[in-house]
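Q: Predict the assembly, please.
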Amino acid sequence: MVQPVLEWQAGRVTAIRPETRQTKSFTFALPKWMAHRPGQHYDVRLTAPDGYQTQRSYSIASPPERLREIELTVERIPDGEVSPYLHDVLMQGDELEVRGPIGGYFVWDVRLGGPLLLVGGGSGVVPLMAMLRHRAAQHSTVPTRMLYSSRSAEDVIYHDELNGMAAANDGFEAFYTFTRQPPAGWTGYRRRIDAAMLAEVIKPFDKRARVYVCGPTLLVEAVANALVEMELPIEQIRTERFGPTGV
Amino acid sequence: MDRDEPDMNTALMVDGNAVAGQLEQIFGRDMTMTIARCAGCARDAQLGALMAFIRGPGVVLRCPACQNAIARIVETPSAIYLEARGAAYLRMAPQG
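A: Predicted assembly structure:
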């Protein structure tokens, strides 16, 4: 099988949906769409009138079962070069240069099986959501737990959809931790993800867990180190660090 | 220096997966599952799992075990430079 060359294409914005105060989901119709693997990303490139170019990578939020279009969920980084443009300037009907799908490392699909532990911080939940949407679209019952760290309940991306998935009783459970402002009456976790929390969430899966961790670099570092100390085989851990921002 | 707080370089670090697009542009295939053997410590790691520093004028990929610089990539308007003397070798599945 010859792999098609990765090339830039003009994606047309067909929908923009606010998710939280800081995040929006953008749907792009792609003339050269191809099915991605959940967890992959697209590169987005902006070109200024003087020719200056800059690009960023954004995880795909939609499952490959959604044909001919992709959805990217983007957090607005206040001093960023690309995300403020996407949030404040880009409108439905506009075109944007994108290339993808990219990356074979941070991917999961139902053929890989489980049990599956997804750990996300802030907008690190985006590629994990592509995995969960794919899992749901395939009617998979792979035992799956998600541990998701947010500042407050208002910052939880896809909150309603995640609650709906958890209510489906198909082997998926969601665990939340709030690092700044837990909701009133919250009795769950209210601290940064640590080794003790991970040990509780991973318990039923023990060392069989296949783990995907995505979020700010320091969160991913802490989680990956804790998993290695639990003697989880390193080849079962996949990480995606996205730098200094976030929770 | 004795400090518990991770430094800014650590906070800025991402995974090799973040430069998957650039690598695919250079090699014409996905490189994230390609194994690099570190020329420093002889440990193997997938390119997607290397420590990547991408905020500078170029990209530096480091060994997650010993932090040796495996590769550096710099793009100019007329050329791409890929220096990889920190890798003993790359091992990838044949295509086709």
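Residues 7 and 121 of chain A are 31 Å apart (CA to CA). The mean pLDDT of chain A is 94.
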